[in-house]
Amino acid sequence: MSENSLNTEKLVGVEVSKSAFKAICFDRGGQILDSLRYKIDKSNTTFPQLVNFLNETKTRFGAIEKIGVAVPGLVHHETKRIAFSTYIPEHETIDFPGELEAATGLKITIENDANAAAYGEYKSGAGRGSRDLFYVTLGTGVGGALIFDGKIWRGASGFAGEFGHVAVNSDGMKLEDVASNGNIIRRTKDRFQQDSTSSLGKLDEDEIRIASVVREALDGDDFARLMLDRTGIYVGTAIANVINLLNVEKIIVSGQIMEAGNIVLDAITRRARELTFAPSFDATQIVSGKLGENAAAIGAAILSAES
Questions:
Q1: pLDDT digit string (tens) for 119-128?
Q2: Per residue in 273-300, pLDDT tens?
Q3: CA separation for the pair 24, 118 (Å, rounded)
Q4: Strand pairing partners for 74?
């Protein structure tokens, strides 16, 4: 993390997800000092809970003037408002940063969660030393973000990087239809009973999670490895389009599924190589993210410090 890019000794970033808030506090050297997590009460509106969480964060971390907040939605860069949010639509109807600032006394910087995570990886993770990169996150949804010449590229209205909407076959099937966590699990459940030797067959269907598939694949389960390999092929198909169009020097793939390591990464790379212009592929590195689940909060904090 470049000291020239940060203007406080203590940086704090918050990630808002569908189910929880998470705050990360770290120093200029990138060392995490503390963290805080709060599960969202789905029976109540999210915004008042976020206000309470930020105030608790101030008490817990102390001496904070700025907080970066990464949100699951499209952020209009000019108005600083959330233009669209699939998971928390109530955020579209309010002046999100303005009302947070009024309620907490903090200076709030908001950013789309994929953009924030990409910036975190660019500054202090797998993207360090790169000038241009494309970031992919595979989770509840599928997101993407672009960094060109050291800056987040937002597009005409701030909505660039909707990687989950890239078509991966001639029928128009979108990447998110097959590579989001829920859809990986759906595809696994649709097929795992056809393989009586798979250790996943010993689990109740309701117990199968991404962590289950990753665990069994790492333990050598052929069926679990097959499902992750096929997911990697879908992701690699979409990534090939990015390489052919943009010729970026690095592509970073993150998400819980990447805990399977080379099982997924090799499939992505193999498929991307098959579908790309060879000189462009040879100029591109495809790697796993380094910051894990903290990437979005770390990126949001750095963006806040630079604002």
A1: 999 999 999 9
A2: 999 999 999 999 999 999 999 999 999 9
A3: 16
A4: 84
